[in-house]
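CO-FOLDING WORKSHEET

Operator: S.A.
Ligand of interest: zinc ion
Run index: 396
Mode: holo prediction, single chain
Checklist:
[x] sequence pasted
[x] SMILES validated
[ ] output reviewed
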Amino acid sequence: MAFDLPYLIGWAALAITVSAVIFRTAYRLGRDVEARYHEKLEEHQESAFYYKGLNYLLSDEQDKAIEEFVKVVRINSETVEIHLSLGNLFRSRGEVGRAIRIHQNLIARPNLSTAHRTSALYELAEDYRQGGFVDRAVEACRQVLSVDPNHARTLSSLLMLHESEGRWDTALEVLQRHKKVTGTPDPRREAHLLLRIGQEQMEGGTLADEESAIDRFRSAVRIFPGCVEGYRLLGEAHLARGRIGEAISSFATLQKTRPTHFFLVVDSLLKAYRSQDDITGFEKFMVRAVNGPSASTRLIILWSRYLEERERFQEAIEVLRAGTQKHPSAVGVAKQLILMLSRMNRWQEAVGVAERCLDHHLSRQPVFQCTQCGFKAQDIYWQCPQCHQWDTMEPL
Ligand SMILES: [Zn+2]
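OUTPUT RECEIVED:
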C-alpha cells in the first residue's frame, strides 16, 4: 500500500499550507516594521470595538453598540457589513433619516459587490418603508428585484407596501411570486387579497363585474376554507342576485368549516331565509348550530336574544342555561341569563346563576403574588418557586 491517492492528496495539502506559511512569514519580515505595528494596532482596536459593539447589542444596549460600531467605521470605512448593521440599528431605533444616509452612502460606492449592493438597496427600501415613503420604498424594492428577482425578503416588503397602498391586484401578484420563491403559501392572506379585489369589482356595478367578483370570492374560500368574510361576501352576493339556495349553502359551509365564527353571518342567514319565507328553516338551522360542539358563546347569546324578542322566554332561558353548563366561565352568557330571570321575577334562580358563575371564577383566581417576579399562585409559598426569594408573596 505504498502511495495511494488520499495519501498523496494529504501530503500535497500539507506541503501547500507549509509553503504558504513560509511565504507569508518571509513577506511580513520584509515589510516596514513600524507600519506593520500600526496596522496591527488598528486591526486589534477594530475587532475590540466590534466585539464590544456586538456584546452591547446582545445585552440590548443599542446606544452603546452604536458608539462602538461608529468607532469601527472610523478606523475602517471599507467594512460594508458594519455599515449595514449600523444602518439597521438606527432604523430599529426609529432614526430613519440616519439609516437612509448610511445605506445611500453604501450604494454610492463604485466598487461595491453586487451582493452588497443588493443588501444595501433592500435595507434602504426598509428604511423608506418604515419612514412612510411608500413610493421610494417601492422603487428601491423594484431595483433589488431587477438584480435578484427571487429576493424573498424584498418580495415580502413589496407585498406589504402594496397592501398599504390598497393596490390589491399588484399585491396578489407579488404574493404569488413570493410563494413560488419560498415554497410557503399564505392562504389567509391570498384569500383576503382576492376578497378585496372582488369587492372593488363589485363597485363596477355591471353584471359582468359582479360575476367576476363572485369568482374571486369563490377562489378565496377555496384557497382558505375557513375564510369567514369570503363566505359572507359570497352569500351576500348570491342573495343580491336572488340565488337564495346558493346563499344559504355558503353560510352553511362556513358553519361547518369555522363554527366558532358562524355567529358573524347569522344576520345574513336570517335575511336569506326570510326572503324565501322560511323562518322555520332558519330556526331549525340555528338550533342545530347552537347545539353543535363548537358553538360560540356569542352564538348562544344571539340565539337567546332572537327568542326573547319573540317573547319565547322559556326557550331563551333553556338555551342560556345549557350555555352556562357548557361554558361555565362565560360571563356574557351568565349575565344574559341573570337579566332574563330577573325580568321574569325569578330572583332565586338568578342569584343561583350569579353565585355559580362567581364561584367558578374565584376558584381559578390566584390569591397571592410575588412582589419580586410577579409569580401568582392560589397558595402562599414562603420561598417563591419562580425567583427563589424568601417571603415575597403578598395577597392580591
Ligand atoms: Zn418570585
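REVIEW:
Residues 370, 372-373, 375, 384, 386-387, 389, 392 surround zinc ion (CB under 6 Å).
Residues 84 and 119 are 8 Å apart (CA to CA).
[x] output reviewed
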